[in-house]
Design goal:
It contains three helices and five strands, in the order ααβββββα. With about 170 residues, it is α+β, with helices and mostly antiparallel strands. It has a five-stranded antiparallel β-sheet.
Length: about 170
């Protein structure tokens, strides 16, 4: 009798694990495949909407990644997004340190780029559309799903920024 109950228990546990895994993958795919349009928005409003959409997409993954346990506390501005969870220190020699499941996600969009800032080029510059943006996604390397978290959040940011860049390019035509 004990063996049968243990066997049934294991089947239930394994079944739940595969359902959780399947559901996890489904949620991530849904968020990454979300399409949106910025049509009819002014460039400034399109920047604001892009930041909001990045936040909403990342927030939709709460429960999928333990790093997003306090995503509701993210700082969402008109042109920037900042979320830290379990951040301890940003050591110059060792790099950042986090508590278990800690992370940091930062996005900043500069539009328009003012002439005096043109000499301070950053990683993602689009002078043809007068746009510059900066992003940083990092997480505790010893936490669950760290690589998947980093790649998923980076993909969300890239997708939303590509939509904004295309919108601004279309507006220049």
């Amino acid at each position: 009798m004990k063996v049968v109950i243990t066997y049934i228990f294991l089947i239930l546990i394994l079944g739940l694990t595969s359902v959780e895994c399947s559901n996890r993958e489904t949620v991530i795919k849904q968020v990454l495949n979300k399409k949106s349009t910025l049509t009819s928005l002014s460039p400034g409003k399109a920047v604001e909407e892009t930041i909001k959409m990045i936040y909403q997409d990342i927030k939709a993954l709460n429960g999928v990644f333990p790093q997003l346990a306090e995503i509701e506390l993210a700082n969402v501005g008109l042109n920037s997004f900042r979320y830290e969870y379990g951040f301890i220190d940003d050591g110059k020699m060792k790099g950042p340190s986090f508590e278990k499941n800690g992370c940091g996600v930062y996005v900043e969009i500069e539009y328009p780029i003012y002439p005096d800032n043109l000499t301070q080029l950053k990683s993602y510059d689009y002078p043809d559309i007068n746009l510059r943006f900066w992003r940083l996604v990092r997480a505790d390397p010893n936490s669950d799903y760290t690589k998947e978290f980093n790649s998923t959040v980076n993909e969300i940011i890239s997708n939303r920024m590509n939509t904004l860049i295309q919108h601004l390019k279309d507006g220049k035509k």
